[in-house]
Every structure is written in structure tokens, then in C-alpha cells.
User: What shape does this take?
Amino acid sequence: MAQKDAKVQDLSQESVMFMKRYSAFAVAREAARYHSGWERAWRSPMPKKSYDVIIVGAGGHGLATAYYLGKNHGITNVAVIEKGWLGGGNTGRNTTIIRSNYLQDPSAAIFEKARSLYETMSQDLNYNVMFSPRGVMMLAQTQSEIRGYLRTAQANALQGVKTEFITPARVKELCPIIELSGPRYPVLGALWQERGGTARHDAVAWGYARACSDMGMDIIQQCEVTGVDQADGQVTGVKTTKGDIACKKLGVVVAGHSGVLADMAGFRLPVESIALQALVSEPIKPCMDVVIMANTVHGYLSQSDKGEMVIGGGTDGFNNYTQRGSFHHAEETVRALVETFPMLSRLKMLRQWGGIVDMTGDRSPILSSTPLGGCFINCGWGTGGFKSIPGSGWGMAELMAKGSSPLTDAFGLNRFAEGRFIDESVAAGVAH
Amino acid sequence: MLILDCPYCGTSADETELSPGGEAHIKRYGPGSSDTDFEGYLFGRENPKGVHFERWRHANGCGKWFHAARCTMTLEVFGTYAAQTFEPPQEIKDKISAKRPGWSWRDFS
Assistant: This one.
């Protein structure tokens, strides 16, 4: 068995050396030979005995952390361990919205960093993540929302994030299918971020995984962490279903299961896991080329490249690890959206699913060292994880490599004891 | 859909009739307590994957607060009980033990 494993590792080393770049030329070359030359995008090795850094969780945030550890800090003796399959958690369950129009300065900094990295991600990773800066519009449907978004637009101007508050007429121009004069919630204006948009969520995880594998990192799927080893208050490794693996530093990037991992490591988190759900309609012809968020009615909407209307809904109010949403929340979301988008009433809904999001008290993430030495945690992204993947990975990698990062310092665990919140719950509402 | 029996009015109420009220049996710390205790009271939560105790309000019904014992992994409900208690009644604990031998939650087991 040991011999066989060694052989698997040797083969994987070989493919590192011959990783082929994707290009128009490669497509033409493969077209000429029946596509027989494509390789696996990343290796699937067995774990080694020890690594410098282990990242738990091969979702977007975990893989981005590993990628920037290698790219920005030269740390490549890294394993990314995943319980299920790569990108199979919230990375593959979100509505792929990318924006950075936040109220508080630390949030704007990390989300804008993420958004700007999305702009060049396909080139950086040599992997098409289909970033589509089609514009994100957050509807103001009450007087208080108008005041809130005017304030956010001013804050964004100071933060260097380009947003503007637009009139209902402009909203109608950008999105002809909208009904402005809904009886309950008329559209009174919107906060518009022109360079926001969407990207292909799976491709983000796959692109990072391929790039990590290319740097010699091991991505180990179907390997569940069952315990955290420690000595003298310092992390020494993890117990997994594929054996014990030693490490010098541990990064926990597991979203909904952060509390479970924290429990293994011996500390508590100010986080609660709840279900957030989304649904998609049957595919239709292109009818809306912007992303619309309606926070008053808890719904957000965009049209995918396949033509499906992708609809995000509200969260459940109670703790839940089941990855399925409640029917009545889907009903509420659709009922509210049909008022603002009457044409949706004719659509059949194809699929509905849920993801487990980790919510903190101030609705801002936690990127922090922990009471356990050498153990770092990246969690609490709640309902806004996808848009922040590159920024989160960038900051988390710097935090793990250097011990602090200008992007993450405000997001420490200590902010709860110190009462130093980054309050986005008022600014962002549910559609974070 | 989640269905809980209100221990006061006896109605078998579904989720739309109820308001979730977060974790149950939280010990409150006030003036004079240590910073750690106060932080734990405000923000520290069990957030377990498995047996959990919660507060609910029969908002669109009799309006009373009550407690529920639930599994966050399967959405199974073990039972509901009155709010005026510091810990779950033995009867509820026994029901949980029958289905989840060896369970523990904070100091209860």
C-alpha cells in the first residue's frame, strides 16, 4: 500500500512539471486531436506526514488563502483539506453577486480589494471565471432606505469605491422589466455600482485549486478533520479520516461548520449557523443585464448566462445545519419579487437549495488569530461570502504569514470583547 | 416545515406562526461581572451541530414564550417546555437520551 501511495505521489509530481496553460492555441490543438490531451486540472494526492500550513476547507476562501500564501508569501508546502468535494459548500450554493458598496471603512477595504482582484482573476489564474461587471443595483423602496443609500454613496466616495445614487427613471432605463410603482414598495431610487456584477462560482474554486496544485500544494478531498492536535497551547496538527497530519500553522476556513472546528480546537466563536436559500427559474431569453437587490423585500435577482433567473432569498431565523431552506421563505421571496418584477409570475422555478452561513453579531466576518497558538480562523462571512473570496484569501494569507494584515486587523475576534463592532447589519440588511 | 407544539395553548404550530428567539438558558451577567463573562453572555453561543435548546414565541397565536429542544442536524424536535425554568425538564432530557445517547449541551446531559 505504501508503495502504491508513493507511486501516486510521484505521478502527481510529474504532472506539476507539465501543467499546460489554457489558451486559444490549446483549444485549437485539442480540437485537432479529439480533445484527448486535456489533463486533470489539479492533482488528488494522499496527504503527506506534515506540512508548513494546513488549510481546512477547500471552498473559495480556503483555496484563495492557500493561493495567496504561495503567490504573495512563497509558502507552498501547504495542504488544503476538504470534508466533501472542492467548492461543494457555499461556494457552489450562492447567487454569485460581486459588489463592494459597504458602509464601514474596513468592510469597504476588504470587499473592494476582492472586487478589484475579480477584475483580473481570469488572467491571474489562467482560468476563465467569467467575471461579468454588469452592474449591481440596490433598490431603495422606503424613505429610510433612500437616506441609508445616500449615506452609503457618500461613504463610498470617501473610500474610493465608485457608486452613485440613481433616480427611478434611470433604474427603469437600466432594467426595463422592473415595475416602479408597486403598490406596497414603489421603487424610489437605487444605489448603483457599475463595476459590480457576477462571476462563475465553481470556476473561482476550480481556478484557485488548479493554480494551488500547480504551485505544488496538495488538495485533499473527502478527508474530514476529526480533531485538532495541540501541545503547550500551540497547534501541532490535525486528526483526519485519512490519518494524522502535522502542521506548523492551521487555517480554519469552513464557514457554516466553524463552530464545530472551533470546538475541536478548544475555543468558542460568536457565530451562529443558519440556512440561507436560493432558487432558479427555467431558462428564458435575455431580459435583464444587471444584478438587482431589493433589501426591503429580502430578494435579489440576476439572470445567468444560461438564461435562468437566479433568485436569492432570506435566511431562516434558527440554527440549522441541514443545507435546505424553508418553503415559506421561498414563498415570501417570490411573492415580494413578483410585485417588483411582474413578468416573473409566469416563470416556473426549477431548483431550490440552501447553504449554511455563519452569522456574527455585527454581520461582519472574523479573520483572526485564536486562543490556540498557530491556529487562525476565517469565518463569519454570513450571507456575503462569494464576493469577498479573493480579498479574504489575500488578507488571510498575509495574516497567517506575517501575523497581521492591514486588510484583516479590524476583523479580529477581540472586537467583540472590546465592543469595537463593524456594524453592517443596518447597512446591508439580509442581502449582504 | 418546522412544527412545534406550544406548551401553553397546546396548538401544533408551524414555523410561520412562530418567532425564533435564539439560544435558551443563557445566564445573564450584569454590572460587576468580568469582561469575559459579559462577552460570553452577549456573543458566545453554543451553535451545536446536533442537540440544541432554543427560545421560541408563539407570535401569531397565544403570544407566549416557550423553550424547544431540537436537533440542528436533522431538524427533529424532541419536545417543548415552559419558559419559566433554568434547565430542561427530566422528561425532555430522557427523550433526547433515547435518541441521542451520550448527548451533552453546555452543563446538561
